[in-house]
Write a structure and sequence with these properties.
By secondary structure, the chain is an all-beta fold. The protein has one domain: Immunoglobulin-like, CATH 2.60.40.10. The protein contains no helices and five strands. It has strands at residues 4-12, 15-23, 46-51, 54-60, 68-76. The strands form two sheets. Strands 1-2-5 form a three-stranded antiparallel β-sheet, with no helix packed on it. Strands 3-4 form a two-stranded antiparallel ribbon. The model has no long low-confidence stretch (mean pLDDT 81).
Amino acid sequence: MASTIRVRATSNGDITEVQALIQHPMDSGFVKDAKGEIIPPHFIQQLTFEYDGRNVFAADWGGGVPGTLTSSSRSRAARKATT
């Protein structure tokens, strides 16, 4: 499975909500392939949202992250950002 990230941001007044849908190949490191060899771990370790060069959301994850996940964050911005 290829990794894809879809991001949507909505504003209501001075509150901005950022939502991310992330699909990735989740391998915990405990599963074996058809040959009986352990598939090495491959999972999202860190997710950050930045605004104007500053972190507004940060998450450290481990092997329990599902292959398809959603994350959202709300923050108050002093001004609107440009894309």
